[in-house]
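User: Can you help me understand a structure? I only have the sequence.
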Amino acid sequence: MRVLREHVGTDRRAHLLQRFHRLRHPAWMGTMRRTVPFSDAWGYDRGTPVDRYYIDRFLMDHQSDIRGRVLEVKDSGYTELYGSDVRERAVLDIDASNPRATVIADLAEADSIPSDRYDCVLLTQTLQFIFDSRGALEHARRILAPGGVLLATVPSVSRLDRRMNDYWRFTPASCQALFGGIFGAAEVNVQVYGNVLTATAFLMGLAQEELSRAELDASDPRTPVLVGVRAHKPDSGSTPEEG
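Assistant: Let's start by predicting it. Here is the structure, written out as tokens:
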């Protein structure tokens, strides 16, 4: 009975302490207290989606890599926006009806694409839709020319896309392990973007224009919205060593 009373007492004190914290630091939910997002289009109908801010930042940081022969998925928008000294703007799509596509292939089974072909491969918000993401990255490395660079962004926090099969979400650790196992740990740089506020805003369908630059730029590795990966294929063509 004594042990039971002590347990009840401890439990009561814990509940009182939790209530004290709630009263001292109240969470005013306001218009955020809702079970459906403000936008069902990732915020496009309100402005620019939050994750686009981080994709742009990542590509701006690495725009010197977007050069020579560049392969991008669906269209060549980022190549045209951030590329320099681009000799070829190739567009990859599994859908042959895409009029902008110059290469028709499934990246996870892309044996038809020649090896050592491109100086840069852009995979922005693509790998979550490829079930065999490792196979896709192995082909991406194979088709890169020696010295070439893969620039990839992947979602860490995002709603599911109902228009297609949406398989994966990624963490910094999973990206380091996945890309590092294919390119070599020393050839991979992983960057995280976002924080709990921007993650919440993105899930709720708010636009980046509704947040301040300081709020967007704040980075918390515990709650990333997006992960960016730069993976380099060495000039030597050596076999990658896992880190």
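Now, to help you interpret it: The first strand starts at residue 68 and ends at 73. Residues 37-232 form a domain with the Rossmann fold fold (CATH 3.40.50.150). Let me know which part you'd like to focus on.
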